[in-house]
Each structure stands twice: as C-alpha cells, then as structure tokens.
Amino acid sequence: MNEDEQRSFGPLGKVLVIIPTYNEAENVVPIVKRVRAAVPEAHVLIADDNSPDGTGKLADELAAADEQVHVMHRRGKEGLGAAYLAGFQWGIDHDYGVLVEMDADGSHQPEELPRLLTALKSADLVLGSRWIPGGRVVNWPKSREFLSRGGSTYSRLMLDVPVHDVTGGYRAFRRETLEGLGMGDVASAGYCFQVDLAWRAVKAGFHVVEVPITFVERVRGDSKMSRGIVAEALWRVTAWGVGSRAARFTGRRPLP
Ligand SMILES: Nc1nc2c(ncn2[C@@H]2O[C@H](COP(=O)(O)OP(=O)(O)OP(=O)(O)O)[C@@H](O)[C@H]2O)c(=O)[nH]1
Ligand SMILES: [Mg+2]
C-alpha cells in the first residue's frame, strides 16, 4: 500500500472556480459558460481589476442571470497574484471546500476540470501540468515553450520542488491546503505567484499531484505577459533558492 492509499482525505465540498480578468471582454462570457456546462455544480467567481474594456459589466450580466456566478470588482490592475489572494479569501469566507484557479482566455480548458477534481479526492493540491506525459501545449511558438519549460526546470532545481510544471496556473486546492500555506505574506504578483504557492505546499508537507492537461494558447484578446513578470519570477526564485540553501547551511530558518 503506498502513502496515498494509507492517508484518508475528507470529502471535497462546494467548488469555486476563480477566474481573474483584466481586459477579457471577448473571453469572459464563453469561459464562464464552458465552466458551467463542464461542472454544473461548481460556482464561478470572476475577479476583475476594473478592466477598461468593460469585462466587469459583462461579468455583472452573467451574475445577474445565474446565481452560481459571482463577481468581485477590484480597484485597478494589481496583478494576478493579488486577484487570486482576494478570490481565495472570498471563497473561504463563503464556505467553499475547493478553490480552482483558471485563466479567462481558454488556455485552461474547463472540460478538463472533472479530471482535476477527481485527482483532488486523494490529494491536497492538484496541478494541471503541461510537462508530464500526456500533457501538451497547442499553438505555442518553440520560444515560448523553451521559456516555460526552462522556468519550471530552473525553479525545480533551485527550490528542490518535485514538480514538472511549477509555473502553470490551472490548479485545484482544498481549502485546508490554502489555509495551511500562510498566504498572509505572499508578495509575488505574476508567474512566481504560482511557483510560490507550489513551493509552500511542498514545504508544508501537502500531497501535491500533477495531472496532464492540454494548454491551448489564447485565441482572442491580448496577453498580459510582460518582461517584468518574467524578471520578477527569475529574481524571486533565485533569491528564494539562495536563501533556503544559506539557511540550510547556517541552520537558520529561511525567510518566507
Ligand atoms: N484580475 C486580474 N487578472 C489578471 C491580471 N493580469 C492577468 N490577469 C488574468 O490572468 C489570466 C492569465 O493572464 P494571461 O495574459 O493570459 O497570461 P499568460 O497566459 O501568461 O499569457 P498568454 O499566453 O499570452 O495568454 C487571464 O485571465 C488574465 O485576464 C491582473 O492584473 N488582474
Ligand atoms: Mg493566457
């Protein structure tokens, strides 16, 4: 009997799919409809950063027509990490048992969510993974794949995280996992927000499972990816890796 079979996991509880949006007017309606069709019992929370293109208004219309759709209007663009932290807190306050991260642009296919939720029955955190057998990306230039694979490999080696896709953003958390991560001091904004949470989960001893996904590059709307987001990930992961190695060497606790 392996470790997973020995440990018993509680029931999952209500599911909340959190979709952060910034200028996703072309995507917000189709993605919410796809989530509602793929997992009809799940609720959706759109966390919009006051998008100038009217995404927030479209989200309000969706919420008015469907009591399982909710909207969080935030002051302005503060990054994906901040939107997720606020969304997680809202979900915890409203008694959801599972909190899912999903992009608005269709890269994370709602039709694959049932597989993530099934895996979460015997895990604390499930990561949708592009870089394990069965996982793939559709319509990415080789340069983007190189950057993403390289970023995951660098993070895995720097932080000793046994995860193949550590920057991915299609994830399902049990609420107890989020509550155990000490999210009060998460400062990361972009991709490194995802690295930060995965690293915290591994360090806290949670059972983290990767499930293969097919990631589809956005078809509509503009990317919010920037050099700044990549640079933030690089310097933070490097600083965390150096800090935790130094702490191991000197016997001091690493800074969070
Ligand atoms: N609320 C909020 N959402 C954001 C912010 N930045 C990005 N997002 C959302 O986060 C998700 C991921 O952003 P993307 O622009 O698709 O980033 P990406 O997937 O790395 O880039 P592409 O591959 O080009 O799509 C999308 O749903 C965005 O609308 C932000 O500052 N605030
Ligand atoms: Mg995207």
Q: How does this structure look, described?
A:
There is one protein chain. With about 260 residues, the chain is an alpha/beta fold. The protein has one domain (about 10-250): Spore Coat Polysaccharide Biosynthesis Protein SpsA, Chain A, CATH 3.90.550.10. It is built from nine helices and nine strands. The chain has a seven-stranded mixed β-sheet, with helices on both faces. It is globular and about 55 Å long. The chain starts with a helix and ends in a 6-residue tail after the last helix. Guanosine-5'-triphosphate binds near residues 21, 22 and 218. Belongs to the glycosyltransferase 2 family. GO terms for molecular function: dolichyl-phosphate beta-D-mannosyltransferase activity. Keywords: Glycosyltransferase, Transferase.
Strand fraction band?
15-25%
Tell me, briefly, the overall form.
globular
Number of helices: 9
Question: What's the CATH architecture name?
Answer: Alpha-Beta Complex
CATH class: Alpha Beta
What's the CATH topology name? Spore Coat Polysaccharide Biosynthesis Protein SpsA, Chain A
Sheet with the most strands?
7 strands, mixed
- Tally the structural domains: 1
Please give the number of β-strands: 9
What are the distinct ligands in this entry? guanosine-5'-triphosphate, magnesium ion
Order of neighbouring strands in the sheet with most strands:
3-2-1-4-7-5-8
Terminal Cα separation, in Å? Answer: 35 Å
Rg: 18 Å
The overall average pLDDT, rounded, is 93
Low-confidence stretches: none
Structural class: alpha/beta
CATH superfamily: Spore Coat Polysaccharide Biosynthesis Protein SpsA, Chain A
Following the backbone from N to C, one meets helices and strands in this order, namely: HEHEHEHEHEEHEHHEEH
